[in-house]
Design brief:
Elements: E1 3-7, E2 14-18, H1 24-32, H2 46-61, E3 65-72, E4 75-85, H3 89-92, E5 95-103, H4 112-126, E6 131-134, H5 141-149
Parallel strand pairs: 5-6
Antiparallel strand pairs: 1-2, 2-3, 3-4, 4-5
Length: 163
């Protein structure tokens, strides 16, 4: 089952585990359950699902990537992707990149997001990373405050080029 951690959030019990292909629709549902994700993530057609399944397969077979789900009573209630990036900068320091952090609406403000992020930071440390980085959209002021409370610092300006 690839259980990674049991989270102490009271009852019911929540566990973190590696995502499985069967989790893809639930994970996409979490991605789509916010203002930004609603316009870019959904499964409306078989082709949509196939695209997400193909992406999952690439992530799942690459040991540098870890797609994690939080689960309780058989339901996926949170997710994040953790990627390990080797580089030459900073004397060859290994970095961890956190992406696509989402928590189901009914579980927000109950400590699940913090627990998932703290686990990811610990996993990055365990694997020898010297830095954990993430990006979040500039419009997500609440997310910025959340990450700052966990010790993240807005030290860089991120840029993107849509292709």
């Amino acid at each position: 089952m690839d259980v990674l951690a049991q989270l102490d959030l009271g009852s019911p019990s929540v566990r973190l585990r590696r995502a499985r292909a069967a989790d893809v629709p639930a994970v996409v549902g979490l991605l789509a359950d916010d203002l930004l994700g609603a316009g870019r993530d959904s499964v409306r057609t078989a082709a949509d699902l196939a695209a997400y399944e193909q992406a999952f397969a690439l992530i799942d077979r690459d040991p540098a990537h870890l797609l994690v789900v939080a689960e309780t009573d058989g339901a996926v209630i949170g997710t994040l992707q953790l990627t390990f990036l080797p580089g030459l900068a900073r004397r060859g320091m290994l970095r961890a990149q956190i992406e696509a952090v989402r928590v189901a609406a009914a579980w927000r403000r109950r400590g699940l997001g913090s627990a998932i992020l703290c686990w990811a930071i610990g996993e990055a440390r365990r694997r020898g990373c010297g830095l954990v980085q993430l990006t979040t959209d500039k419009s997500r002021g609440e997310a910025h405050r959340f990450y700052a409370e966990l010790g993240f610092v807005a030290s860089h300006e991120g840029l993107k080029l849509t292709l």
